[in-house]
Design brief:
single chain; 671 residues; alpha+beta; Arc Repressor Mutant, subunit A; Rossmann fold; Serine Threonine Protein Phosphatase 5, Tetratricopeptide repeat; 5 domains; six-stranded mixed beta sheet; five-stranded antiparallel beta sheet; 28 helices; 14 strands
Length: 671
């Protein structure tokens, strides 16, 4: 067994006032002794020994545990490094002491004053026991080896008493003592091995959950760039990570949707509390710092219940390699929580995706603005998705985003169907041509086909999207809309509720549950659900729209007028939203005001697009039959998007038996 070095008497100094003593082994800051466990202490010594050099994980394992160890040393090393950084008040992002070299190991980067250097500075005339740094390294080697073989904590370490020689009067007693020491050491080794094995089994075996599936939440990535203009980057990266992790084995794992984790941006809640609120077993936390064409990402996987850090990694890459980093993170997460990968997934993750940095940045901006679900947001998103496509014509996700933007803009009344739907259709088709296995692209195409009144094609695409990804909330959301249009109200509500279950804080999905009740003529539930959406965000126009429409049909006319005016204001001036104000006014007996709005919209239509369907609704509420059918015919000829709701729109209930109305239903294939 190696003996302790005898020449290291003075402490090793580094940083601003830190001193490391070898006898007794301890770390001090000034006069204060800092608490540090054995493994972090020995790793610190190893890093000091190889200061300014990369110390690999294999070197750490060999020095601290010995070769041939079968424990989960990677997690132990990461945990020890975190403890060291905590004690030293070091930051992994901007380290002063310990730098992580991704894929290689760790490097001690602070200035170190060895005992030799300290002696040379304070006693220039005195002789020094050690004449080179090599002596210092050798002594540290011996000290570490002695400590590893004895398997004791630093504060339990004691210098050995001088040994008695065999053949003295103490020989037999000494041999007996040695025998008991050997037995005790062996027992200690067995206990250490057993505890380590149990710890490894706990770490390597995934817990069993009563709900049958692992639930994982990717929390909003922190923007460490400190530049508000870069929020799109951290938010977009969060959504992309959710999307990619969500493509793993869906029979084993559910991933919490983006809008449901958004409220935890900047949250100081403990992992255990967040996990409890989201009913999540694991949390992924991350940070991103971007400068020029480089990005630094740190990702951490935490088991929520006991707040155990299972895996942490930092990536310092060029922007063009960001998609490859995402694939690496997804693969690591799958390995840590024991998610089985299909052969196709293994192949995809082994061949990292690539795209132009400017295309990826434009795509992230597009998703950032799309998620605002406002007119201005969708218009900006459309521009950014197009920029991404112009930069990289093979970017499937950007085509899908472009399709969604055009569908949304025409639904909200800001674009004519003649302008928006061909673009949306072409973009969705292109996305599928590039990536036929994309659930997002199939759902986007289903939405466009629904707007084009291709009911069979729409249902086929929605079903295919859900087959590819049963957890894709938007597919359930849009499929529910289709089912409602077809008057399959029970199925529609089931899909809407499933979408809400998958993404409970998504404002659009929450509001569309109200629409499902509204079109099924259950106005009390429609009002209740719309109120829930308004409580989630009082500035969300569509929530006020559904609440106001529900009030009108429930007979609460003045409340309906108030809510619909708020919706029109918050929508950014959508003519379709403005038309609903006139409908409410007509229902409240304020016909002159309603007619004034109708005339105003007709005038506006000469300069910009105004959906004829909204004008038909106003005249139906005014019970002006000829004008109603005049504008319904115009809406049919225009292929106005809201015409798809004609079979379930309560505003037209008084015309159900009219042959002209029945003829329109047949022409739209909604008999």
């Amino acid at each position: 067994m190696a003996s302790e070095p005898t020449g290291v008497e003075q402490p090793i100094r580094f940083g601003e006032g830190y001193e490391l003593d070898l006898r007794p082994p301890r770390l001090r800051l000034g006069s204060r002794v800092l608490k540090l466990e054995r493994i972090p202490f020995e790793i610190l010594l190893l890093l000091l020994e190889h200061r300014d050099e990369i110390v690999t994980r294999d070197q750490i394992v060999s020095r601290v545990w010995g070769r041939g160890v079968f424990l989960d040393t990677d997690n132990s090393i990461r945990g020890a490094i975190r403890k060291l950084r905590h004690v030293l008040k070091d930051d992994a992002e901007t380290p002063r002491f310990i730098q992580t070299v991704t894929g290689q190991g760790y490097r001690f980067i602070a200035q170190v004053i060895t005992p030799k250097e300290a002696n040379a500075a304070s006693e220039p005339e005195a002789s020094v026991v050690r004449t080179s740094d090599r002596d210092f390294v050798s002594e540290l080697d011996g000290w570490l080896e002695a400590r590893r073989l004895r398997l004791v904590e630093p504060d339990q370490d004691r210098r050995a008493e001088p040994a008695t020689h065999a053949g003295t009067a103490h020989g037999p007693a000494s041999r007996k003592v040695h025998r008991w020491l050997f037995v005790g050491a062996l027992a200690l080794l067995l206990v250490v091995f057993l505890l380590s094995f149990l710890a490894w089994r706990r770490a390597s075996s995934p817990p069993t959950y009563s709900h049958g599936k692992i639930v994982l939440a990717v929390l909003p990535f922190e923007n460490l760039s400190r530049d508000p203009d870069q929020e799109f980057f951290s938010d977009g990266l969060t959504e992309e990570m959710i999307t990619q992790v969500g493509k793993l084995n869906r029979d084993q794992m559910t991933v919490v949707a983006r809008s449901s984790v958004a409220k935890y941006k900047g949250s100081k809640l403990a992992a255990k509390e967040i996990g409890k609120e989201l009913n999540a077993d694991y949390l992924v936390q991350g940070s991103v710092r971007r400068w020029s064409d480089r990005v630094r990402i740190t990702v951490q996987l935490i088991q929520a219940q006991n707040q155990t850090d299972l895996w942490t990694e930092s990536y310092d890459r060029e922007l063009k390699d960001l998609l490859a980093v995402q694939d690496s993170v997804v693969q690591s997460i799958a390995g840590q929580i024991h998610i089985a990968l299909t052969e196709e997934q293994k192949t995809r993750l082994a061949n990292p995706r690539r795209t132009r940095p400017e295309a990826y940045e434009a795509y992230l901006k597009g998703r950032y603005y799309w998620n605002k679900r406002t007119a201005d947001g969708m218009q900006k998103a459309e521009l950014y998705f197009q920029q991404a496509i112009d930069s990289d014509p093979t970017y499937a996700a950007a085509y899908s985003g472009l399709a969604d933007c055009n569908s949304g803009l025409t639904w909200h009344g800001f674009k004519s169907p003649a302008d928006a739907l061909p673009k949306a259709y072409a973009a969705a088709r292109k996305a599928l041509e590039i990536d036929p296995q994309s659930a997002e692209a199939h759902a986007s195409l289903g939405l466009v086909l629904s707007h084009r009144w291709d009911w069979a094609g729409a249902e086929s695409e929605f079903r295919r999207a859900l087959e590819l990804d049963p957890q894709y909330a938007n597919a359930h959301h849009w499929y529910g809309d289709y089912l409602s249009i077809k008057r399959r109200h029970d199925e529609a509500l089931a899909e809407a509720n499933r979408a809400l279950e998958l993404d409970p804080l998504n404002l659009m999905i929450s509001t569309w549950v109200a629409l499902r009740h509204y079109q099924a003529r259950d106005y009390s539930r429609a009002v209740e659900q719309a109120r829930n959406s308004v409580e989630l965000d009082s500035n969300f126009a569509a929530a006020h729209l559904l609440l106001g429409e529900g009030y009108v049909q429930a007979g609460l006319r003045s409340e309906g007028v108030s809510e619909l005016k708020a919706a029109a204001r918050l929508s950014g001036g959508s003519p379709l939203y403005t038309a609903q104000v006139a409908v409410a006014l007509a229902a409240a007996g304020r016909k002159r005001e309603a007619l004034g709005i109708a005339h105003e919209l007709e005038t506006i239509s000469r300069k910009r697009y105004v959906s004829p369907y909204g004008l038909a609704q106003i005249y139906a509420a005014l019970k002006s039959d000829e004008d109603t059918f005049k504008w319904l015919q115009a809406a049919y000829g225009d292929r106005a998007v809201w015409m798809e709701y004609i079979a379930v729109d309560p505003i037209f209930d008084r015309y159900r038996s009219d042959q002209r109305f029945q003829q329109l239903l047949r022409r739209i294939d909604l008999p």
